[in-house]
C-alpha cells in the first residue's frame, strides 16, 4: 500500500522546521509493522518505537498519540486512559488514524501530527542510544536519538 498523498512532504517539512537530526531507513511497505520490521532488518524491538493513536470511547472524541518501545505493550486501559482523563479509551481504528493524521498504521510518526493531539512517550525511551520510529509512511523509518523527541512542541 502506497503512502498517502503529501504526507511525506509534511513530515519532511516538520523534521526540518523542528531541526530533527535523523537517518531515513528505506524499507518495503510489507515490513513496516514493528515485529516484522525488526525480524527482516535485524533491529532489536526495544530500539523501535510504536507511535500509536488512542481514542476516547465517548463523544466528544479525544485523541492522543503514545510512543512506546516495540518490546512493550501500551497500557490503554489504565495509564493512557488516566493521561487522557477519560473513562474509557482504545486504539484508534485504522480509519480514524488516517483521517486524523494522514498516516497509515505502521507509519505513524510524532513529527507531523495535528497540533491538537497530545503526545505521551514512555520515559524509558530517553535512555536508549537510538530509537526507530515511523516516518509518516510505510516505505521508510526514522532513526533518531531519543533526545530529539524533546524538540516536539508540548501540547
Give the structure's gist in a few sentences.
The chain is α+β, with helices and mostly antiparallel strands and 155 residues long.
Q: Topology of this protein?
A:
Blueprint: H1 7-18, E1 23-26, H2 34-41, E2 49-56, E3 63-69, H3 76-84, E4 89-91, H4 94-101, E5 119-121, E6 131-134, E7 140-144
Parallel strand pairs: 3-5
Antiparallel strand pairs: 1-7, 2-3, 2-4, 6-7
> Could you give a short account of the major beta sheet?
4 strands, mixed
CA distance, first residue to last residue: 31 Å
User: Structurally, how many domains make up the residues?
Assistant: 1
> What's the CATH first level?
Alpha Beta
* Radius of gyration (Å): 14 Å
Reading side by side through the largest sheet, how are the strands ordered?
4-2-3-5
- Proper CATH architecture: Alpha-Beta Complex
| CATH topology (fold) name | YbaK protein
Shape: globular
**Low-pLDDT residue intervals, each spanning 5 or more residues:** none
Task: Summarize model confidence as the mean pLDDT.
Answer: 93
CATH superfamily: YbaK/aminoacyl-tRNA synthetase-associated domain
Number of helices: 4
Series of H and E elements: HEHEEHEHEEE
Total number of strands:
7
